[in-house]
Amino acid sequence: MTARTLVCYGSSEGQTASIAERIGDALEADGYDATLVHLKHPPADLDLEAYDGVIVGASIHMGHHQQYVTAFVRDNVEALNRLPSAFFSVSLTAAGNDTDSQETARELLAELPTETGWEPDRTLTVAGALKYRQYGLLKRFAMRGIAGRAGGDTDTSRNHEYTDWDDVESFALEFADELVALQEG
Ligand SMILES: Cc1cc2nc3c(=O)[nH]c(=O)nc-3n(C[C@H](O)[C@H](O)[C@H](O)COP(=O)(O)O)c2cc1C
């Protein structure tokens, strides 16, 4: 039996989009059906009920997830609470190895479900990336300051990626396995 999974996400600099792609690839490699949707431009006829489960992803910018993801979750909260659902939150904070950073990353993650009344069955904080080479000058130096204070990389001559791809794949496959177990009763 195959599980149809919707993977929908917000992404401002592309890292969450890459993570969603990896989730889609991992699901398909294991024989599951995955549909990817960028929530900035969702198709008008997107129907959550057409899926067996939904994974939502968003990244943190200036302390918050993308507003359009929060709006999407709020608009679809009944379906999301009825279906098996999962949420991953991408941030620089999640890259910190200390307990404080991990706790802050979980607090950042919790904001969206709390604000919208969504109760995802599974959640994951994911370390994102610093794409210095992609940022304009002002953003590059602002992010260098933020990263420096957070103990992150300050070498702006290259990009830095902190994402644990194995963790991302396990999160997706464990969720899909649960969907199948639910279907098989
Ligand atoms: C302008 C800007 C603001 C950010 N603000 C935060 C923040 O407040 N907290 C945090 O943990 N990470 C912050 N980050 C790091 C992002 O969450 C990280 O770069 C992530 O990979 C971005 O995902 P995206 O490429 O999908 O947008 C910020 C990044 C940028 C570029």
Structural commentary:
This protein is α/β, with parallel strands linked by helices and 185 residues long. The protein folds into 2 domains: 4-128 and 164-184, Flavodoxin domain (Rossmann fold), CATH 3.40.50; 130-162, no CATH class. The chain has helices at 15-29, 67-75, 77-82, 99-116, 137-149, 165-184, and strands at 4-9, 33-38, 53-61, 64-65, 85-91, 122-127, 129-130, 160-161. Strands 1, 2, 3, 4, 5 and 6 form a 6-stranded mixed sheet that branches. Helix 4 links the parallel strand 5 (85-91) and strand 6 (122-127). Helix 1 crosses helix 6 and helix 2 (67-75) crosses helix 4. It is globular and about 50 Å long. The model has no long low-confidence stretch (mean pLDDT 95). The protein binds flavin mononucleotide. Flavin mononucleotide is lined by residues 11-16, 59-63, 90-93, 128-130, 139, 143.
Alpha-carbon distance between the termini?
Answer: 12 Å
Do you know the CATH topology of the largest domain?
Rossmann fold
Q: Compute the average pLDDT.
A: 95
Largest sheet: 6 strands, mixed
How many discrete domains? Answer: 2
Bound molecules: flavin mononucleotide
